[in-house]
Amino acid sequence: MRKFAALIILIAVSCTSKVEESTSSLDILDKKFSAFFPEGEPGGAVLLAKDGEVIFSKGYGIADINTKEPITAKTLFNLGSISKTFVSNAILILEEQGMLSIDDELIKYFPEFKNPEIGSKVRIKHLLTHTSGLPDNRKVNEDTVFYLTAKDAENWAPELEVDSLNFEPGTNFEYSNPAFNGLALIIEQVSGIKWQDFIIENIMRPSGMVASTITDGAHPESGVSHGYEKYLGKFIEDDYGEEPTFAAAGNGGVWSSVEELFQYELALESSKFLSKEKMQDSRIAKKFRKWIGEEPENIGWSWFVTKTEEGLPMVGHTGSQGGFRANYQTIPEKEIFFVILCNTPRDGFSEIMMDWLRENNWLDGMPEKN
Length: 370
What we know:
Layout: H1 2-36, E1 44-50, E2 53-60, E3 77-78, H2 83-96, H3 116-121, H4 124-128, H5 144-147, H6 152-156, H7 178-191, H8 195-207, E4 213-214, E5 228-231, E6 234-237, E7 254-256, H9 258-269, H10 276-282, E8 304-307, E9 313-321, E10 324-331, E11 336-342, H11 349-359
Antiparallel strand pairs: 1-2, 1-11, 3-7, 4-7, 5-6, 8-9, 9-10, 10-11
């Protein structure tokens, strides 16, 4: 009986030590981000999850330099290019419904292409993977006033006027924001409703993203954080009305919080709006037969597929628009998810998270395969 009691005490002490160690390591993570985002300045929100459970979630700094509203895990930030994953998933939903195919030629949706041959060569899948070869034909620097309020249609229209491609579709990579303005317009054509409404109804609501929104005109004056750049030592607002192309929502118009992006990831993993097969396929790097790019293909249907230094597959997307910065990453084999959203131009926040994961042996595992 005494041996049994001693064993219970030993187990209890051991479990307590592990809890204290875990809490202590999270305190270190908190201190690192507290030092990175100075109090009283624009900052960011951080969420880390393991095995489908949130283990760390906190906000730092202020959402608005005028109101001094503090950032929390519920604060809405502009996601920048993470928005592209929502547009891509909407396209895949429509494909699962049999309403379009990612192999469709663009001429089917945009018969007004100045050069019909280009419209016939480029397909939806090329827009999804930034492999269309379409040059960015927008004259943003020459007409900044126009592009301060220009929406998706105005940002896509110059692409219909191109007379030549930078390369043959599916042979190389060139990041394209207008591509996702075009994809948003395709969603609108096929669904028969505004593309923002389609995403809200078919992705956000099934995911439980009740507070998240999508740009459709003027920047909201309340309920969201403002983005800031630093100029001559002072923070200057840089979002809707200051940053050209900010109103073009297909490439960067989603607003969400770290909490609701975790809901988005859970919904993806549990097939709330896409089948398991479709979702998994979207996160596999697409290979093209005639590839001539210097770098190997590393993008699925909008998701970037990379590896950690340890050789672990990593799937996610970053975002940068105006004064906003963001990073959304999953490490599937370790069931790790983290998202960091900022309204400040500072870089280096992702390294803080990755360094902490390494220091705590969360990335121990497989060597890279040849």
